[in-house]
Amino acid sequence: MLQQPTSEKLEAMRLHGMAQALRELAGNEAARELSFEDRLALLVDRQFTWRQNEALQARLRRAKFRPTPAWRTSIIARRGAGQNAAVIAHRGIGLGGTARRGCW
């Protein structure tokens, strides 16, 4: 089978995960011993995983998370886990137990 034209067609159809998996399987001796169905399942699984990862990366880019200073994270961790820590962080309560505006 001609690997290069098949890989190019997969890329043209935007099946980038499958194309990458096909290139990797072509150089793998153990993969040649697999049945057609098993190799096809590997290709489909790789494409599915690739799409999920791309969607996750896009959501993370759109989320625009702000970096959290390390000292704030350690204070929240010392206060306790779970919802109490989230409430403490949201209200801006400092180490002394008083609410401070604009300290974080």
What can you tell me about this protein's structure?
With 104 residues, the protein is mainly α. The protein has two domains: 3-63, no CATH class; 67-104, no CATH class. It has helices at residues 3-12, 16-26, 29-32, 36-63, 70-79, 83-91. Helix 1 packs antiparallel against helix 2 (16-26).
Main sheet overview: none
Distance from first to last alpha carbon: 61 Å
Shape: elongated
Q: Briefly note the structural class of the backbone.
A: mainly alpha
The gyration radius over C-alpha positions equals 24 Å
> What is the number of domains?
2
Helix-residue proportion? 55-70%
* Strand tally: 0
Counting DSSP H or I runs of 4 or more residues, the number of helices is: 6
Classify the beta-strand content into a percent band: under 5%
* Low-pLDDT segments, ≥5 res: none
Order of helices and strands: HHHHHH
- On the 0 to 100 scale, the average pLDDT is 78
Brief rundown of the structure:
With 104 residues, the protein is an all-alpha fold. 69% of the residues lie in helices and 0% in strands. It contains 6 helices and no strands.
Topology, element by element:
Blueprint: H1 3-12, H2 16-26, H3 29-32, H4 36-63, H5 70-79, H6 83-91
Q: Which keywords apply here?
A:
single chain, 104 residues, mainly alpha, 2 domains, 6 helices, elongated
